[in-house]
Design goal:
The chain contains 15 helices and two strands. By secondary structure, the protein is mainly alpha-helical. It has a two-stranded antiparallel sheet with strand order 1-2. This is Vanadium-dependent haloperoxidase.
């Protein structure tokens, strides 16, 4: 399989992104199809309400990791998109299915059924709480043909989605390959757990081959680039760093919590612009599905290069054969290192996917948003998607969990995969 080239300047990729954003621009007013479909606009947007319920089930109750939860959110929001799209008359290409619908079917009922059924498939142990939320939602919808039709559409979309994800490669117990030679991945403190290696084997939602996006090799251990990036994270990312600024420390902690950052920003932008249920469903599906396929490609690259993280490389720097690096056996990062190989940065891949999908949907980069993180106890404000993405790449260095080359190439990979996803899916029919 021919790999998609990721070499070349970021300026070139940015030009591609701008052109793609223009090609995928969605007007900020309701489309003709939506205006005549009976689809609700916020407030009272059922897509946002059920996305919050999904976060409760996935994060607060199941306590899935950010990586694992990306698959769950993509399954849920992909089914919701197909359901709402069907009720609206299928103005967009479906992701998995296009259930039959009738004029007047309830969008709220379709959203409730699609979310409930996919969450129940993912978390059968949460049946009691999920059923209670579902019953409460349906109780607010008048009984009759509209409600019954919406439920049927939502259930059909959920059934098609879950069937498509059976035996999709999800295996939380799959271990990473652990090495002992300089540069090879080692388990990371404090937990030294070996989990997450299922992601490279997960079936993509849209792209044909997630392995076609591998990045170029990490720097040679004996070279100047390796010494430069190792010494940078060693200095800036140490828990006891004296050169990292207070704002950099705050940003490193703030960006370490994707639950309160990227996904809350997506809902915030949908709510602030009073998007209809159809446009909200499409936006959320674009974000989550692009993120899922991006992480699969990203983790395939991680598995391929199997590179060591700063938390293990810095104490063992005396073994890398580079006179410009010195070991520090007591070095610890500001933030806990995720249990996966270093290269490329998963968070850079993920955040770029989110921000690129948002830019493509709204057709602009200059979106103003802010979000609060309980981890840092602060709210950070941004005037553009690119500004946020650029800070994230730096923040992973300040956190002590990634080298600069891992963040930069994670960004490039995330951009390439997301543009491919959005060119293949969610298009107007």
């Amino acid at each position: 399989m021919t790999q998609r080239p990721l070499a070349g300047s970021f300026r070139g990729l940015r030009r591609i992104a701008v052109l793609t954003v223009l090609a995928l621009t969605v007007p900020l007013t309701a489309t003709t199809a939506e205006a005549h479909s009976g689809v609700e606009a916020a407030p009272g947007n059922p897509v946002i309400a059920w996305n919050i319920h999904a976060q409760t089930a996935i994060y607060d109750t199941a306590k899935q990791s950010p990586t694992t939860s990306t698959r769950s959110f993509a399954i849920v929001q992909g089914a919701v998109y197909d359901a709402v799209n069907a009720v609206a008359g299928r103005p967009y290409e479906p992701l998995v299915s296009a259930p039959r619908s009738r004029p007047g079917d309830s969008t709220a009922a379709a959203v409730a059924a699609a979310t409930h059924d996919t969450l129940l498939w993912l978390f059968p142990g949460q049946a009691e709480s999920l059923n209670a939320r579902y019953d409460e939602a349906l109780a607010a919808i008048p009984d009759g043909r509209a409600e019954d039709g919406g439920v049927a559409v939502g259930r059909a979309a959920a059934a098609a989605m879950t069937e498509s994800r059976r035996d999709d490669g999800f295996d939380p117990t799959a271990p990473w390959t652990v090495g002992t030679e300089p540069g090879e991945y080692r388990l990371t403190p404090p937990g030294y757990v070996n989990v997450g290696a299922w992601v490279p084997n997960l079936k993509p939602f849209v792209v044909p081959d997630a392995g076609a996006y591998r990045v170029k090799p990490p720097p040679t251990l004996t070279g100047a680039a390796w010494a430069r990036d190792l010494n940078e994270v060693k200095s800036l990312g140490a828990a006891t760093s004296t050169v990292r600024t207070e704002d950099q420390t705050e940003a490193a902690i703030w960006w370490d919590d994707p639950r309160m950052v990227e996904w809350s920003i997506t809902r915030q932008l949908a709510d602030a612009r009073r998007l209809s249920s159809l446009r909200t469903a499409r936006l959320l599906a674009m974000v989550y599905v692009a993120s899922a396929d991006t992480l699969i490609a990203c983790y395939k690259a991680k598995a391929h290069w199997n590179f060591w993280r700063p938390v293990t490389a810095i104490p063992l720097a005396g073994t890398d054969g580079n006179a410009a690096t010195d070991p520090d056996p007591d070095w610890t990062p500001l933030r806990v290192t995720a249990p996966s190989p270093e290269y490329p940065s998963g968070h850079a891949c993920f955040t770029t996917a989110v921000m690129t999908a948002l830019g493509s949907f709204f057709g602009r980069d200059d979106l103003t948003f802010a979000a609060y993180s309980p981890a840092s106890g602060t709210t950070r404000h941004y005037d553009s998607l690119q500004a946020a993405t650029a800070e994230l790449r730096e923040a992973r260095i300040w956190a002590g969990v990634h080298y600069r080359f891992a963040s930069e190439h994670g960004h490039r990979l995330g951009l390439a995969v997301t543009l491919d996803v959005l060119n293949r899916a969610f298009q107007r029919r």
